[in-house]
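It would be a great kindness if you could assist me with a short task in structural biology. Thank you for your consideration; the sequence and its tokens are set out here.
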Amino acid sequence: MNEEINIIVCIKQVPDPEGPPSAFQVDSKEMWVIPKGIPPVLSPFDENALESALHIKDTNKNVRITAISMGKKLARAVVIKALAVGADEIILLEDKNFDPKRLDCYSVAYVLATAIKKIGKYDLILLGRQAADWNFGQVGSGIAEIFEIPSITLAQNVKLEDGNVMVERVLPDGYEVIRVSMPVLITVSHEVGDLRYPSMHDIKKSKNKPITTWNIRDLGIELPQGHINLLKLFVPKQEKTCHFVEGESLEEAGANLALKLKEDKII
């Protein structure tokens, strides 16, 4: 394999999903989740996708990785992490119109697909299996549909072999192996492994790598009408009741507990 292989990795900036529940406030009127006091991070599933691309680059020196991130206002320290770990270039799609409140999965897929077309060359497009904030898992398949290319989901291993892509796709009871020609889009699952840590040398080196910023005018598009309507967003109420099971002895208490569990159809 002598020709350069161009891998596009889509990475999303999200509020840290490891933050405590108290750090997220649900606005039922605006139907939005407001993070409080927690930093933005790369979506962990997209980090899996980036690690998968780096695995491929480790064993194929003719691979070029371009990371794309989209948002209204992106934290540079977060998104350029992709350059520090080994991506060759990052393209930031940044515009006031790219407000997450205004976008649904189709709109995001459309904007990302337009940016990939503008890049011009792609052989393999990688995303996380879903975003770590809304967990829809639809953007990847949307991009593949726009490009009319094959789409494989839930990959736990991706490698190049004889000019094709070999994918291990996660199943409930194991995995299946899929062989597909490029171009292809693949969504990567957490089984791939965590994103590697960059060394200090890599962090310094990343400062010399290209960062390109495009807004909606650079892409030459208007945002399409949304296809998904969010009807209701709320924190579910959880009610708990406590029953004390008594007995004259431990044996009797155990028997009464069994009867109560059977009565409540737990056993």
